[in-house]
Amino acid sequence: MKNKNQEASFLKGIILFLVVIGILFLFKAKHNELDTSRAALAGLIQANSSVASLLNWDKLKAVGVDVGAEYSAFKIDKDKVNYKKYFIRGFSAGFKEVKGDYKEFTNWRFYEKTAQKTVVAADYRGKILLFSLPKNEKKITDIQWKE
Questions:
Q1: Where are the domains of the chain?
Q2: How many Cβ atoms are within 10 Å of 4's Cβ, its own excluded?
Q3: Whether the predicted model's global pTM rises above the 0.85 cut
């Protein structure tokens, strides 16, 4: 009798563990674009070079600038690496120049989801900043203020 109870208890424990893991996986998958957008903005503001891995440099458009076109114009890898560094530092400097504060970005949410892309939005000082990520790609291609 004890063995059957132990087996049942063990199976219940495994099932509970799998349910918790499944819920965590679904929660993480659902919020991945939000996390990517938040991390990208924080990295850009802090001039953290690791943010480069969250951006699709060949296609990137940021606040009215076709970054992808400028980036793609460089043919030497070292020049591309330097462009990334200068862009990230410039973004950070511009944000600090206007006394920006990351903590003022609120109400992070999914703004639009289509078969082609996901758009994440955040409110900031009465405006809305939008981040676009193509479907099945976890890199940002567009950062724009909503008009």
A1: 32-145
A2: 8
A3: no
Of the candidates 144, 60, 63, the one whose C-alpha atom is nearest the C-alpha of residue 71 is: 60
**Cα separation values, 41 from 7, 19, 37, 116, Å:** 49, 33, 6, 22
Residues 21-53 have pLDDT tens digits of 444 444 444 459 999 999 999 999 999 999 999
Which residues are 120's β-sheet partners? Answer: 110, 131
- Quote the Cα angle for 60-30-114, to 5°: 55
Using the structure block, give the residue that is written with the tokens 């943010």: 51
Torsion of CA 75, 77, 82, 87, to 10 degrees: 70
32-145 belongs to CATH 3.10.450: yes
Cα 52 from chain centre: 11
